[in-house]
Design goal:
The protein is of the alpha+beta class. It has one domain: Trna Endonuclease, Chain: A, domain 1 (3-Layer(aba) Sandwich), CATH 3.40.1350.10. It is built from 2 helices and 5 strands, in the order αβββαββ. It has a 5-stranded mixed beta sheet with strand order 1-2-3-4-5, sandwiched between helices. Helix 2 links the parallel strand 3 and strand 4. The longest helix has 18 residues. The termini are far apart.
Length: about 130
């Protein structure tokens, strides 16, 4: 499967998965000059930044291992940018979380949701 299409399909599956779990999708593919966040979602007073990874074959490196410290740092920087430029979203937000969703299988049939996959100890958004 062509990698760009595979990524898009995995994100579509992740969005449907999150919606079924009661999340409202605020943004998809939020880009800044620093990087990108695949999905930004909200569930009640929780704001979640989601990185989506996919594995269709026998990858030596697990998809969840691809979200290394460098990638986490970029996601956190982009999240801070989103927060600074979208203050209206945060009127009722009490918690922020960074998740990873892995979509696996030859036909992308398995979804693994790693809640609080990583965090920034001094992450401030107020």
């Amino acid at each position: 499967m062509w990698s760009r299409k595979k990524g898009y399909d995995a994100e579509e599956i992740a969005v449907k998965f999150l919606k079924k779990k009661g999340y409202k999708i605020l943004k998809r593919n939020y880009f800044t000059k620093v990087g990108e966040i695949d999905i930004i979602a909200r569930k009640k007073k929780l704001l979640v930044f989601v990185e989506v990874k996919s594995v269709t074959g026998e990858d030596v490196e697990l998809a969840e291992e691809k979200v290394d410290f460098k990638k986490q740092h970029k996601i956190i920087k982009v999240a801070k940018h989103f927060i600074l430029t979208h203050q209206d979203v945060f009127e009722e937000i009490e918690e922020i979380r960074f998740d990873v969703i892995v979509v696996k299988g030859k036909n992308l049939e398995e979804v693994l949701h790693y809640e609080s996959a990583f965090c920034e100890g001094d992450f401030t958004w107020g």
